[in-house]
Amino acid sequence: MSHRAPLLITTGEPAGIGPELTLMLAAKGLLGNVVAVGDPDMLRERAELLGLAVEVVNAVPGSREVCAPGRLVVWPAALREPALPGVLNPVNAGYVLETLQIAVDACQQGHAAAMVTAPLHKGVIIQGGYPDFTGHTEWLRDACGVDEVVMLLATDNALHTQSSRWEGSGDLRVALVTTHLPLRDVADAITYDRVVQVGRLLAADLQHQFGLAAPRIAVCGLNPHAGEDGHLGREELDIIIPALNALRAEGFDIQGPLPADTLFTPRHLVDVDAVLAMYHDQGLAVLKYAGFGQAANITLGLPLVRTSVDHGTALSLAGRGIADPNSLGVALALAKRLAAQRSNAMSAS
């Protein structure tokens, strides 16, 4: 039993690997001051299916009872229908969102120190009656009532180092100007105000969350060759360059816009704390190649700490006991560090 507020893991899409990743960490005794949010009966069934010796214990939401080796404490949310590994069911979309709401409410009320999210499936949530759902990041923005958030992914070493001198080309922090959009909508979503707001949030949280006193940020162009002086697109000239100049005038250390095909090379990254990419696959394809399964996602700009895994629901792996829980472990370790930093900062203020 702990007297500190626990960290919460939302177990994500019940047909995916989120529930079993949580159970795997519990079986290995790697959870500690953690509580899961999910359906206890589903988690018991999944533990039995996988042959994991984990006792699943129901607890009252807001209580301070936490996990121990071989013991998973759960704040209950009820599945709408039984879930089978690998078989999506839109009826359970509301259940997935309920687990997120429980975690957000607990963090905002001081009953939890942070939330860590296992993967969900956007398509099945949309099919389940939530047509405007675009992902965790945007849902959390709206649930917390903030105007802007920033998605940042980072490989394991880059998550906790306070130095920008990468030990290897696989150490990387990448933030995004736009997140879960169809590619044809990306250019319209890149506005002067958006670039400025994202740049400010990224710099502020690199300072406050990662301990970088004067973060150095390199920014990708949108177009090939960063537009090549307008010959390959005008977004750099008309939007991105003016926004970056405004950030520089506020005192931020900003490089770019730079061609994305050469920015992600060791020579260009050696003096950079983070890269700001214009869209999802521009930045995250490189990061996941560099450190897939060894990275975590953090949502910057929220009034709470939220981290997540760097992968999806992996339906083809669900229920087979072969999924790798490392990214969830990395996300959990990051959440613990960020929650401690936030607590220390609040105590000092």
Low-confidence stretches: 160-170
Please state the overall shape, judged from the principal axes of the Cα atoms.
globular
CATH topology of the largest domain: Isopropylmalate Dehydrogenase
The CATH architecture assignment of the largest domain turns out to be 3-Layer(aba) Sandwich
Order of helices and strands: EHEHEEHEHHEHEHHEHEHHEHEEH
β-strand amount: 15-25%
CATH class of the largest domain reads Alpha Beta
Main β-sheet, in a few words? Answer: 12 strands, mixed
Explain this structure to me?
This protein has helices at 18-27, 40-50, 93-108, 122-127, 136-144, 156-160, 183-189, 192-208, 235-249, 260-263, 266-269, 280-291, 326-348; strands at residues 7-10, 34-38, 55-58, 71-76, 114-117, 150-155, 173-176, 216-220, 253-258, 274-277, 295-300, 306-308. It is an alpha/beta fold and 349 residues long. It has two domains: 1-146 and 303-349, Isopropylmalate Dehydrogenase (3-Layer(aba) Sandwich); 148-301, Isopropylmalate Dehydrogenase (3-Layer(aba) Sandwich). The protein is globular. Its cofactor is Zn(2+); Mg(2+); Co(2+).
Give the topology, please.
Elements: E1 7-10, H1 18-27, E2 34-38, H2 40-50, E3 55-58, E4 71-76, H3 93-108, E5 114-117, H4 122-127, H5 136-144, E6 150-155, H6 156-160, E7 173-176, H7 183-189, H8 192-208, E8 216-220, H9 235-249, E9 253-258, H10 260-263, H11 266-269, E10 274-277, H12 280-291, E11 295-300, E12 306-308, H13 326-348
Parallel strand pairs: 1-2, 1-5, 2-4, 3-4, 5-12, 7-10, 8-9, 8-10
Antiparallel strand pairs: 6-7, 6-11, 11-12
Helix pairs in contact: 8-9
Catalytic activity: 4-(phosphooxy)-L-threonine + NAD(+) = 3-amino-2-oxopropyl phosphate + CO2 + NADH
Organism: Vreelandella zhaodongensis
Binding site for a divalent metal cation: 180, 225, 280
